[in-house]
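User: structure tokens for this one?
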Amino acid sequence: MKLQHYLGGLEGLEPSSFEKRVFVQPWEERIFGIHVAMMALSNHLEAVKTVPTQFKSFWTWGHLRKGAEGLNPFDYFKYRYYEKWLGGISGFFVESGYVSKEELDSKTAAYLEQLDAPLPQAEEPAIDDQVMEYLRVGDSPKCDVAIQPKFKVGDVVTVRNPPPTDHCKLPGYLRTKQGVIDVVYEGAYNYYFPTGDGVGDPMPIYNVKFDSHEIWGNLTEPKTWIYVQIFEGYLEDPA
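Assistant:
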């Protein structure tokens, strides 16, 4: 069980950072750009089939978060935000065979010795166009399948408590709590890949209303509510 799956709703986590800059170091901009390009060139996108790219893998926001959340908790809390990105993306490229660990270590050592060395440059208009189009259009998880929702507005539901593995879309503070279905969203949605805890295949999503006292007891003001969008796979009928 990884602590990073349970951070939401916890108090007293120190130290807190109030850094307002999106990018603190120049390399963070580059790793963000690499991630965006990987999403835009992911092999599940129809438009990519005609783009001359050597990237042949499936990559989404979910894969990035899986790489970060799969870290050892000590490493997860030690590294800064984009350091987690860098570790997850680098690990993916090594595991997928795009680069060997030895090649990566060698390049890293070379750039550390000469920090002002020019970075590799390449131009491919079709790739640039695809990345820009992806930024405009995005990638919707909504699926063109008809699935009857298990719950309706007003139903009382209990949040399941599945064991998380490398990645989880369920906030830890909601586990075992009861709420009320407030909205049933139209259609079905997937989560790109199975997470091992009930999410992956197309399913309905609900907006669930929770009494804050049910979650945090008397630490919250009376008659206050929170609303959370939750996959159906994380909900069940009350015991």
